[in-house]
Amino acid sequence: MTTLPNDISAVIEADRAHVWHHLLQHKALETSDPRIIVKGDGMRVWDAGGREYLDAVSGGVWTVNVGYGRTSIADAVRDQLVELNYFAGSAGSIPAAKFAQKLISKMPGLARVYFANSGSEANEKVFKMVRQISAQHYGGGKSKILFRERDYHGTTLGTLAACGQPQRAAHYGPFPDGFVEVPHCLEYRAQWEGQDYGRRAADAIEEVILREGPDTVGLLCLEPVTAGGGVIVPPAGYWDRVQEICKKYNVLLHIDEVVCGMGRTGEWFGYQNFGIKPDFVTMAKGVASGYAAIACTVTTNAVFEKFKTAEDPLGYFRDISTFGGCTAGPAAALENLRIIEEEGLLENTRAMGARLMGNLRDLMARHSVIGDVRGCGLFAGAELVTDRTTKAPLDEATCARIVAETAARGVMIGVTNRSLPGFNNTLCLSPALIATCADIDAITDAMDGALSEVCG
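== Taurine--pyruvate aminotransferase ==
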């Protein structure tokens, strides 16, 4: 048991009275205490009651990739803040330049890094860049942005306009014009008959481009592996065909790596599993493992050069992210990247990811409520159904009970919730890249017990 602060009761009451939590219906806190996490170490966290949990979701939202308690990252941030804590991004800094160079060395074909402080903001930057390219190079044409059903790109109005999860966007419209949805590619929930499902799902994107008019479409924005929409790994052939389509119609390709980036899938970035050559890559979450706020919009030189002009006084990218100039982010990110490299965490992710998928398949063999398991590296999902033949999804409330019962066994897992009407039925796993065989087995053992308890 961890040592708790002496005034923890006062902290709980202060939280209840003054903190507005993310993604939480506060009506529930009228009769129960808010969850307060007070300590983290490695793969474990402790709550205000002293209860220990194995964290299988890396901070709840796929963020703490190298685990808790990394003193070397904290020291790097402290040392940098004393030297220089901040200067606006119109000037450079030593950690930003060093991290940009190191990052680009992991991303062949890409060249420039624009710093911001959240994944939503990083994606907004891409949308603004595309709109400015449209205005300056296509006379306002090619301004439409395509996004995929079930994908998620952020919480701002612009990124919610590109949200493939209707319940996330509900009540926040009207949204900006020019955002168009393309079909998802989850073969388990097949929308078309026949073989070669990956190519067929990609062909659906071409159909949307032709319907909208190729001269109106400037960008296709996709997650390499859909995260909160159900942990969807695109089928074979999908990404090859997507790239053919983008090249054919001169559509820029934006890969949103906010969840998958920095080792989560067993490669530095999720797109590197599929041979993708993107024009934009965005990232946040695991870039500094949550030790400091940082997000990056990374582009090719071809994109960057479109904003270099001496003739147009408005031709440069007229954007600022105030805290993109904070030096804590790149300082933490540099040390985070060093840890991943020197501790061999990409290799560990691939090995432990294989063990996790094997364990999930064993669970599927024992529990008929599991209809499908899927994943890539230490990023996995188990879709729950009431009947494997009909694939009728298990209801959201029962899925939530399974998550709660797993937590009662000392393991925190995630679940899709209030995102996809009728399909919030996928358990989500994203343990830190430092996970051991014992950690992976403990996660799936707790799930086994919870599934037996709730579903029989």
